[in-house]
Amino acid sequence: MTQALPTDTPPARIAIVDDHPMVAEGIEAILDGYDDLTVVTTLSCARKLIEGLDSFAPDVIVMDLNMPGMGGLEATEMILERAVAPKVLILSMHDGPEYVSSALSHGASGYVLKDASSETFKIAIDAVLDGQVYLCPGAQKALKPSENTAREALTGREQTVLLQLAQGKSNKQVAASLDISVRTVETHRKNIKRKLDISTTAGLTRYALEHGVLQGSGRFDRN
Predict the structure, then answer these.
(1) C-alpha–C-alpha distance, residues 182 and 213, integer Å
(2) pTM for the full predicted model
(3) 3-state secondary structure 93-124
(4) What local confidence, expressed as pLDDT, does residue 146 receive?
(5) For the segment 117-151, what is each residue's pLDDT rounded down to a tens digit?
(6) What's the rounded Cα separation, in Å, for the pair 57 and 111?
(7) How far, in Å, CA of 76 to CA of 148, rounded?
(8) What is the full DSSP assignment across 9-42?
């Protein structure tokens, strides 16, 4: 049902990124039915979205989890490093708890399954615009069994930051190396300590040594 738009409120700007045209066009058709939303772009490539993010200026990005080249999670990390970042709503056909948890740990504001009802997409967008984290019913059901049973995994960017911190670099040096702000590095550092339950830089270095991070041959513990 088309909703009335208050005359003093501009419609929320929505970007859709999915490498399956039928899916992207279907979501666009759903959202076009609402006067308080406007689809500013529909893309098949996350990298094109990032390159044009300033011109698209979306309030919410509805983005596929798995895409060729740059996936939805990698793109989400890059998008959320911006000073003023849009909300990201991950779209996926996967309802496993590891997929939902990973999306949230990368900073996504919501997770919607591709077979969700048409109304769910509007509910999800309204929720994330309101500052909430939204999980569609299928994602909520998937997440419950594993909730609080495993340590939260580090994201790809957090792994990179950990490596550089373990090499003795300061926040400022890491920021310069990765071309991000010092504040963003501080946020990553805080999240790494929380996820690994390590409170000191020495502890992070020891963790990196024990798990082969500094040698580049080990894998991060995701259990």
Answers:
(1) 22
(2) 0.67
(3) CCCCHHHHHHHHHCCCCEEEECCCCHHHHHHH
(4) 46
(5) 999 999 999 999 999 999 998 888 876 644 444 56
(6) 21
(7) 23
(8) SPPEEEEEE-S-HHHHHHHHHHHTT-TTEEEEEE
